[in-house]
Amino acid sequence: MPYASANAHVHFALHPDHQPAVIATTTGPTADAARSHLYDHGFRSTGPATMVLARIDLEEPHYTARAAEQLRLSGFITEIDPALQEEIDTEWTWANYSMPWCSRAEIREVGAAAQRIHDDIATGHLTIHLHADDGHTTVAVGSYTTGVRRHIHLHGEDHLRQISTSYDTEAEAVAEFHRLYSVAVRPGPAPLTDLEQAVRRLLTGTTPSTAEATSAPATEPPVAEPGEHEAFLAALFYEDRQWERYRPSDETTIASHESLTVRVEFDHEARHRTDVAWTVAEYDGPVGERLWHATLTAGTPVPLIHTILQHLDAPTLTTAGHPDDVLHGAAWHPASHPASTTWAAPDRSIVFESTPHAVADRWTLYGGEDLDRAAWTIRLSAGVPYDLLAQLAGTAADLIPSPTRLSPKPLPAPARGLPATAPAQRVRGR
C-alpha cells in the first residue's frame, strides 16, 4: 500500500544514444520526492526533470523495473515505454561469457559486484595505486579508504571486474602486485574502457554536440612556481599587521590571527605535489572548539591561498551564494556520482568535488582531472562557510581561460561490440 499520496508522474524510456541505458522523466508537484527515490536506485540527475540510469553491467532494464515497482508501491504514477518494456521482458546473456557455468541470476550478481567496484572507484572510496595488462585483461591493486580498510587485487574490466585477492596492508598488496606483473606495472588506474567512457558521458549529461569537449585531453592545471608560497607568506606578515608569526622549528612557521580564532601552519619542507604545505583552522573563540579546517598541498596556486586567508582576515559582509551557482555561471560541467557531486572546468584542468556525507574532506578542489594524480589539492572539512566556498569557486574559475568553441563530433559507439540501437538478437557480445 502507498505510504503517502505522491502526485508525480515518472516516464521511463531507453536512452536514444546508448542502449540499454534508461532516461527517467519526472513531472508533477512531488517530482522531487520521486527523484529522491530514483537516486536510491542508481539514477543520476542530468537536468531539471531528467535522470539517467547507466551501468557498466548493462542491466539497466532489470533495475529500472525494480525502481518502477517501488515507485508504484509508494504511490507514484509510472509509465514504461514499450521498447523499454520489451527489454525488461526479454532475458539475454553475454556472448562467449567467460564463466559459462553461471546461471542468469549468477551472471547478474557478478555484474552487480563489478558495478559496486566501479562506483567505489568513481566516488574515491577505492583508490587504485597501480595497474597492468596480464596478457588477457587488466589487473590492478588498490585500497579502500572508507569503512573497513582493505587492500585488494582486481582482475578484469567492466562487468567482469572482480576482487581476486585481499591483503592486510597496502605495502604487502603492492609488493605482491609488482612480483606478479613485473615490468608490465603502470602507475595509477588504467585508462577508462569504451563502456566506462560512455557511461561517464551519460551521467554528466554530455550530448553528441559536446562529446568532443569531454573526450579531449585536459589542459595542464595552473600550479604555483617554486618559491611563490614562501614569498606569499613573507608578504602576509609584512603587509598585514593582524597576523603574528611564530617559528617553532626551521621547518614550520605558524601564523596566528589577532582574533586568536584562526591558526595557519606552513611547512617550509613541502615540495612534492602530495605534500601538505598549508594547514588552516578556524575556532569558535580563543579557547573554543574547532569549526573547520583545510589542508593545501605544495603546488596550490597562490590566488586560492590568498582567497582563504583574506576571508579569515576580513570576511565579506554579503554572502557570495552557493559554490554550485558560481561554477554553473562559469560553465563548469557537473556530474553526479553515488556519493558525491563534481564540477569540472571547461578545459578539465580543475575539479571541485562535494562529498556531502564526509566529515574530514567534505569539499575538495584539485588541479587536474584525476584526484589520484592531482597536481595540487585543497581539502576542506565540514563546517566551512558557504561564502568562502563560493569565493574559492570564483577564484578557481578566474584561473581558467575562457573556453573556445569546439566543432561538433558524432558520439562514438557506446561500448565494444554493442549496437547503439535496440538489439535484434538477445545475445550481447563483447
UniProtKB/TrEMBL annotation:
Organism: Streptomyces nymphaeiformis
Biased composition (Low complexity): 206-218
Sequence ranges assigned to domain DUF317 in this UniProt record: 261-315
Name this protein carries in UniProt: DUF317 domain-containing protein
Chain intervals for the UniProt region annotation (Disordered): 206-225, 401-430
InterPro entries: DUF317_SPDY
